[in-house]
């Protein structure tokens, strides 16, 4: 079964054996993670689509892949010839996954999925859809696993402890905060399946999920005890001792299901958008108190130790990005450089600059030249991708995990001559990015209230981008962390974000993407902070904590007004002051040139 049509055909054969009419394969693991380990890449195996977000829906007559605007171009290319229909989620006239499942389900038909990789909320929706067609859900069949004969093993890596000089707070302090939320909800116990929340709460990290230093685990917190369900062999003496000292019981990973079966009659707080359907079904004899995991908001608001550390991480990151920019500008046209070469080079610079603090990339580096950059999450692949030429633009989106925190930065570089349209689009993107960074707003605002500041320059020129303007960033956790974000579109599947609190970190990354021509993105991270207090309430603002030059070779100064120029000059002055002590010679002169006033 080397071709995608053969794999889909084999899946349909398994569906027939189980009397399943519609089978759903999301991009997920047992914990609703964004990035997943190779074991969980069933959707990728069945469809050939490699993006990090998407859902495959297969019926007897049709197969469809749903993904968002970041991946439309990529998905169209990768699905070509597969027989799978691309569903451009969010576009006018395109159904949601649930609407499509209802449409494809015949009367009396059954919806199937692996209940361990579908959220409780989604599972309930599918159950309602099936009931409306006089059918049912079949949630205990991993049909993708049957078809995927050489599936990788599920790996549990060694767990390490994140010291308080990095985390800023002890396990005991964090547990006390969570227990306060449990009491407020009048719950007996809180079950957590989200890996970012668990890793944060217990100050543990591992390498169980690609690009995310998570520990594959479950947790149950009551007012008197805490249980961590994990591969016990992955816990060394030091980790086991520190967890025990904090009153945490360590239990085998899969024991969460037998634990849940014994919970009958208790009041359980859980996030039905994150907990898997199979686990929720075992809790059906409990009183479920549904709500967002308390950890989600607690961890989004970084403490003083974390913010001080994160600034240090961005210094290391800024040094690496500036060195990369110098190398790129100096060598383009002189030596052969592919997209992959460029991506590998910035990854290696980050590793060298970070030293013992550096853990890994925070996501797969995007190095996209020319028209490839119009695909927001493009990958050059093992073949190396395009060869860079001394013309056009290169977009590089990259980041790192350090003990001091997680970074995410995008820069678009001119490699030589660029068109007037490219220069105009770059400058609009710059204006948009500067607008958000300079925002002053009343406390109580959410990202949806501010998103128009970034999009206004685009909309005024008949442009837009098919993604959010920014996302939260975790501390040595996920590079994409909720609940804070910048975006204007709200739907049932993407509800309203969080009030922007002091200590939250959100990316600021507008862009322009022209299929077949070019893609531009400029990304900094913003730390939310309190500004002055006035008679109307607390005014909030942002501190920019990304320190790297923006390529002035791409800027059309005539498009910028004085306010834009002042903002850009102030940013570049800060970048120079932060980084100049780490450079000398030609690199220092380069830094001066690219942070000069305009």
Which helices and strands appear, and what pairs or packs with what?
Blueprint: H1 4-17, E1 22-26, H2 42-47, E2 55-59, E3 63-67, H3 72-79, E4 84-88, H4 97-104, E5 111-112, H5 120-132, E6 137-138, H6 143-147, E7 160-161, H7 164-167, H8 171-184, E8 189-192, H9 195-201, E9 204-205, E10 217-222, E11 226-230, H10 237-245, E12 248-252, H11 255-261, E13 267-270, H12 277-282, E14 287-290, H13 294-300, H14 304-331, H15 339-354, E15 358-361, E16 366-369, E17 393-398, E18 400-402, E19 405-406, E20 409-414, H16 420-437, E21 441-442, H17 447-459, E22 470-472, E23 481-486, E24 505-508, E25 511-514, E26 518-521, E27 524-534, E28 537-544, H18 562-579, H19 585-594
Parallel strand pairs: 1-5, 3-4, 5-6, 8-13, 11-12, 13-14
Antiparallel strand pairs: 1-2, 2-3, 7-9, 8-10, 10-11, 15-18, 16-17, 17-20, 18-19, 21-28, 22-23, 24-27, 25-26, 27-28
Helix pairs in contact: 14-15, 16-17
């Amino acid at each position: 079964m080397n071709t995608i049509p053969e794999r889909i055909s084999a899946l349909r054969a398994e569906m027939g054996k189980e009397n399943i009419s519609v089978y759903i394969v999301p991009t997920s693991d047992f914990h609703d993670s964004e990035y997943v380990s190779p074991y969980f890449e069933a959707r990728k195996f069945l469809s050939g689509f490699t993006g990090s977000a998407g859902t495959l829906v297969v019926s007897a007559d049709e197969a469809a892949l749903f993904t968002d605007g970041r991946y439309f171009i990529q998905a169209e290319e990768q699905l070509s010839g597969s027989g799978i229909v691309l569903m451009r989620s969010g576009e006018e006239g395109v159904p949601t996954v649930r609407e499509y499942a209802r449409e494809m389900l015949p009367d009396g038909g059954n919806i199937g999925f692996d209940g361990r990789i579908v959220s409780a909320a989604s599972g309930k929706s599918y159950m309602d859809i099936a009931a409306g067609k006089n059918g049912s859900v079949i949630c205990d069949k991993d049909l993708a696993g049957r078809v995927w004969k050489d599936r990788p093993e599920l790996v549990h890596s060694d767990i390490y402890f994140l010291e308080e000089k990095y985390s800023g707070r002890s396990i005991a302090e964090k547990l006390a905060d969570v227990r306060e939320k449990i009491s407020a909800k009048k719950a007996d116990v809180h079950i957590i399946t989200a890996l970012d929340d668990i890793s944060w709460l217990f100050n543990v990290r591992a390498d169980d999920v690609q690009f995310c230093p998570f520990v594959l685990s479950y947790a149950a917190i009551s007012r008197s005890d805490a249980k961590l369900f994990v591969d016990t062999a992955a816990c060394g003496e030091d980790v086991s001792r520190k967890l025990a000292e904090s009153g945490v019981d360590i239990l085998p990973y899969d024991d969460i299901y037998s634990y849940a079966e014994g919970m009958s009659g208790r009041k359980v707080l859980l996030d039905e958008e994150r907990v898997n359907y199979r686990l929720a079904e075992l809790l059906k004899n409990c009183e479920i108190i549904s709500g967002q995991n308390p950890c989600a908001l607690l961890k989004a608001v970084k403490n003083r130790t974390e913010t001080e550390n994160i600034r240090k991480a961005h210094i290391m990151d800024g040094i690496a990005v500036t060195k990369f920019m110098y190398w790129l500008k100096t060598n383009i046209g002189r030596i052969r450089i592919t997209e992959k070469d460029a991506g590998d080079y910035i990854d290696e610079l980050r590793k060298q600059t970070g030293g013992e603090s550096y853990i890994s990339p925070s996501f797969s580096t995007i190095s996209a030249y020319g028209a490839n950059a119009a695909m927001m999450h493009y990958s050059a692949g093992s073949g190396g991708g395009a060869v860079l030429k001394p013309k056009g633009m290169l977009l590089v989106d990259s980041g790192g995990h350090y003990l001091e925190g997680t970074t995410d930065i995008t820069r678009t570089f001119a490699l030589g001559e660029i068109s007037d349209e490219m220069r105009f689009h770059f400058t609009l993107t710059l204006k948009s990015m500067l607008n958000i960074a300079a925002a002053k707003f009343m406390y109580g605002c959410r990202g949806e209230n501010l998103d128009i500041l970034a999009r206004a320059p685009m909309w005024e020129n008949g442009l837009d981008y098919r993604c959010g303007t920014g996302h939260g960033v975790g501390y040595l956790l996920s590079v994409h962390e909720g609940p804070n974000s910048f975006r204007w579109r709200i739907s049932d599947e993407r509800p309203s974000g969080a009030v922007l609190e002091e200590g939250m970190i959100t990316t600021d990354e507008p862009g322009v993407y022209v299929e077949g021509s070019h893609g531009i993105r400029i990304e900094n991270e913003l730390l939310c902070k309190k500004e002055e207090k006035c008679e109307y309430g607390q005014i909030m603002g942002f501190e920019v904590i990304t320190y790297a030059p923006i390529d002035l070779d791409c800027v059309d100064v005539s498009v910028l007004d004085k306010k834009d120029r002042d903002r850009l000059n102030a940013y570049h002055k800060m970048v120079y002051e932060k980084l100049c002590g780490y450079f000398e010679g030609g690199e220092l002169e380069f830094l001066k040139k690219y942070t000069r006033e305009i």
